[in-house]
Amino acid sequence: RAGLALALAHVCQAAGHGAVPAGGVVGEENCLNPLFATHWAGKSDIVHLNSEPQTQFDLNLCRSYSNRASCCSNAFETEQQAVFKRWVEHWKRVKDHLSDFQLDMEGLKVSRAYVEVGFEEKALFNKAFESFNSALDALGTCFDTLLEYTAGALCFACDPHWRGKVVLSADGTRVLSVRVHDSSNEEVWQSCREFAVAADRLDARVGDSALAKRLTTRFEDLDAFTSRIGIADFMARTVAALPMRGPNERVLNLEPPESVAQGQRRLQQPPSGDAPDAETKFTYPVRDGRASGFKCSVFPRKPVVLTTYA
């Protein structure tokens, strides 16, 4: 089965690996965030960020950066929108892969192979088949929230105060991790909790069915969704740290050594009591994505049942 974490690592260029210009030291307020190095000003062949923070009055996507000095321009919004669209298409493919597998299982139910297996295997197969509906019903709220997180990560390009919100390499040329405030991780988990339970059950039941495993259709690896820590780390590595997804696939090893990962997770935790300077030390991708102009409500959501009282 294709790993979801690897599938998400589709980048056309190594985001986060840009070199700091000659002189070496990045200032406190500038538009030289290494995460967006391929879009630094001075590269005439692409749409780029502002060369220095400038006040924009009519940003349509990262609206919270309007009317104040930022690194984004109206022209750069075209690039942000294109990247966001690629993320939307990615999550649609994940949903389609689940639906396709379910459809192929439905076809298998009328095949000779299904008729010939015993009662126990039929029961296991049927349980696996029935588990798809719960996962597909629950993924809408989860995936829309992942898109909100993505929108916020893209808007981080506008932030001239980026330096305190990332962990840089020793030479200052690369972003090792983005310091995501835990409130965004909690929002993601609350939105994905139901899907996580359904996905875990689905994975187990498909694994229990020998007949289901005969299918050659791609079955998504949803392990990243099985815990709060897992999905927080997954989003930090594959979205916050690689926001500018490119059109060409390149599989990368995104898993840092455990010693590095543990240190980065400690750095990403907000101070006790959410100190007043948290805004200068952490990113808030879900909050910022919800305030943006990106269209994040893409997937059908499970209807909310309203209870009335006489």
SS strand fraction: under 5%
The structural domain count equals 1
How many helical stretches?
9
Radius of gyration, whole Å: 22 Å
What gap, in angstroms, lies between the N and C termini? 51 Å
Q: Specify the biggest β-sheet.
A: 2 strands, antiparallel
- Can you give the mean pLDDT? 83
Please provide the count of β strands: 4
> Outline, from the CA principal axes?
elongated
What is the string of helix and strand elements?
Answer: HEEHHHEEHHHHH
Structural class given helices, strands, pairing?
mainly alpha
- Poorly predicted sequence stretches spanning 5 or more consecutive residues: 1-27, 249-268
Proportion of helical residues: 40-55%
Strand order of the largest sheet: 1-2
Task: Briefly characterize the structure.
With 310 residues, the chain is mainly alpha-helical.
Could you explain the architecture of this structure?
The radius of gyration is 22 Å and the shape is elongated. It has one domain (4-31, 84-269, 279-290). Strands 1-2 form a two-stranded antiparallel sheet. A two-stranded antiparallel ribbon has the order 3-4. The protein is mostly helical. It has nine helices and four strands. Helices cover 46% and strands 4% of the residues. Mean pLDDT is 83; it is low at 1-27 and 249-268. Helix 2 (74-108) runs antiparallel to helix 4 (119-155), helix 4 packs antiparallel against helix 5 (182-208) and helix 5 packs across helix 6.
